[in-house]
Amino acid sequence: AREEAANLTAELAALVESRQYINDTVGDEILLSLAALADWMILPQRLNWHFEDYFQQATVNPLETISPDNRQDTNVLWTGPDLYFRFARLYTLQLGARYGNFYYEETAGDNQRLAGYARAIRRLSPDGELYLHGERMHADYDHPGATDVLGITIRDFDRTDAYVGYRWSSILTELLLEGGYSRIERDGAEAVDEPLARLTLRRALPREGETGLRLSSQLTEGGGRLLASSGGRFDVDPHSTAVSQDIALERYAELFYFSRWRGVGTDIRAFWRDEDYQESVFDEEAAGVALHIGYPFAPAWVGRLFGRYEHVDFGLIDRKDRRGVLGIGAFHRLSRRITIDFELRDEWQDSNAAGHDFNEIIALVELRYGDRPSWAPTR
Length: 379
Hints:
Elements: E1 2-4, E2 8-19, E3 29-43, E4 47-58, E5 72-87, E6 91-104, E7 111-123, E8 128-141, E9 157-169, E10 173-186, E11 192-205, E12 209-221, H1 222-228, E13 247-261, E14 264-277, E15 284-298, E16 301-314, E17 319-333, E18 338-351, E19 358-369
């Protein structure tokens, strides 16, 4: 559901899923996922209230094969006000505060967070702006000093981010460039300091096409990833091995391309990711490609073919995984708001570590009301 009004923008996506296991080795399941995002402009151009909430499933042990016994509910609430002060026509000052509540059903990662930020913006032209951003956040865990499932000590921490950014856009091109520094001060452990850098470049192509590049190097941590997922996949990604409660330096690169020719939509991306953890020995480097092709073969029918391949190297523990997914599907629009979706996919992992191989074949029938939000990627 989507609401667009003069003072309110809101999106809501929810999924109720029934999983039937045909070999009777585990019990059938009913799963629920929810993603909500809203901005309420209380005073136009002066005071805004921001709200996010994501309820979804995650693995208990990210290094074990996904199964009903290795899955837990998680929820993140992130909300707070934004104040805007405009000076003349070229300068804007934004001040904001956030409260966060992070919940894990099984693991000891529950925490509350308080954050505040300030951003000074200078409009350089109708198409470009320069800004300076500073942010401070405190994370208070319910069980500090406990260890998570991987033996990592859970610590309260304070995080500070400061960076300068430049944003420019035209009819065909969008550019975002940010650079600065991050510092995380952990109770009972040394502080972590690392540069912060992000680059996003998009270029429009003929026939509704688009190509671009994303580069980033930044500090990440488990709760932040849960919030940044923005709902993400509504089911657990069996290929995700992110350690939940540790601090990591994450470097990421992605090259993407999209085109539509004679009704055929082609989406291709290649990516590389490197994660260096502070305490965990599960540092990983991953590289892969993903492809999605969609074709309208009838007025109300669209077929699709998709695949993904990824190679992951856990260098410190001498483990290497090859992961993949291949699937076909079709969806039929029953009415303007109701769509039925059929899908068959095969997800697998081949590892040199004993006990970490899996092959999961999934047949899916999905009845959907409304449009899938842009921030909630397809499964």
